[in-house]
């Protein structure tokens, strides 16, 4: 399944036993030449505290707290496969339980999902980052002899947002991994490179912690909206163009929650035989 091109392999753990080593499985299935191919692995699990629980593993096997595109796909799977057949559902994640509203198409299948991403986390130690400022807004970071201004936000997972004139491959593929591993981010960090088109329209490329560049990042887009408002660049409602599609983000002033709306698609299903190199 994918949300705006951010693709993961999903396992229905309501029916399938949980793998003893999901981190190892994530690395195997994510390999685009010797496995199925994807940005990582997501397990859809039963839980007593919500409609389902999502566990998300990056392509390198590391477990992450949340995935905005992934949770929309989890909601689509639950609804389309009649595990949870209701338009509102709650899904437990490593960043807490989130509420989702779904929109169905003419065939009764989920077309898009709105996720209440909760309140952005702006306290430096909770992101976490050791960069100066609380919140960290337009803070100076030196990377590869370059001085860049960064704004840091957590949406359950850490993000470092950089507004630049052009989000080039050099920025994403050379600077992105260096920032991901920078000493100022003790849990590593996702990095967003953002071009401002207007006060309500942005272009974003993301270097994701543990996966490299992905075609979309939902928590990243949410963080970008927050950073845009904090730096005076954008309004609270924005459309963000990602390589895999568009997301609509609203940082609601009334409740301080960020709401993300975007597509979800199931591409194929099958059986993993455990093949190896």
How many DSSP E strands? 18
Mean pLDDT: 96
Radius of gyration: 18 Å
| CATH structural architecture of the largest domain | Roll
- What name goes with the CATH superfamily of the largest domain? Diaminopimelate Epimerase, Chain A, domain 1
From the 3D structure, determine the CATH topology of the largest domain. Answer: Diaminopimelate Epimerase, Chain A, domain 1
Largest sheet: 16 strands, mixed
Shape: globular
- Give the CA-CA distance, first to last residue: 24 Å
Low-confidence stretches: none
Q: According to CATH, what is the class of the largest domain?
A: Alpha Beta
Relative strand content? 35-45%
The count of helical stretches stands at: 4
Q: Summarize the helix and strand pattern as letters.
A: EEEHEEEHEEEEEEHEEEHEEE
- SS-based structural class? alpha+beta
- Count of the domains: 2
Helix content percent band: 10-25%
């Amino acid at each position: 399944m994918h949300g705006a091109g951010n693709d993961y392999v999903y396992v229905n753990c309501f029916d399938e036993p949980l793998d003893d080593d999901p981190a190892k499985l994530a690395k195997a299935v994510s390999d685009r030449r010797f496995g199925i191919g994807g940005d990582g692995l997501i397990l859809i699990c039963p839980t007593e505290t919500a409609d389902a629980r999502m566990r998300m593993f990056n392509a390198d096997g590391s477990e992450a707290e949340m995935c905005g595109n992934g949770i929309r796909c989890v909601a689509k799977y639950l609804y389309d496969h009649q595990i949870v057949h209701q338009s509102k559902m709650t899904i437990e994640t490593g960043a807490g339980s989130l509420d989702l509203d779904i929109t169905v198409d003419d065939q009764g299948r989920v077309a898009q999902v709105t996720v209440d991403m909760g309140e952005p986390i702006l306290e430096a130690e909770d992101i976490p980052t050791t960069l100066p400022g609380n919140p960290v807004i337009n803070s100076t970071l030196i990377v590869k002899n370059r001085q860049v201004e960064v704004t840091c936000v957590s949406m359950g997972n850490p993000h470092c947002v950089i507004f630049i004139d052009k989000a080039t491959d050099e920025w994403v593929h050379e600077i992105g991994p260096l920032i991901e591993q920078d000493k100022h981010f003790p849990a590593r960090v996702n990095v967003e490179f953002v071009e401002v088109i207007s006060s309500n329209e942005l272009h974003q490329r993301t270097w994701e912690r543990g996966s490299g560049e992905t075609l979309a990042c939902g928590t990243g887009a949410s963080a970008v909206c927050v950073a845009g408002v904090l730096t005076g660049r954008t309004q609270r409602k924005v459309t963000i163009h990602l390589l895999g599609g568009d997301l609509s983000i609203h940082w609601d002033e009334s409740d301080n929650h960020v709401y993300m709306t975007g597509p979800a698609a199931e591409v194929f299903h099958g059986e993993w035989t455990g093949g190896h190199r």
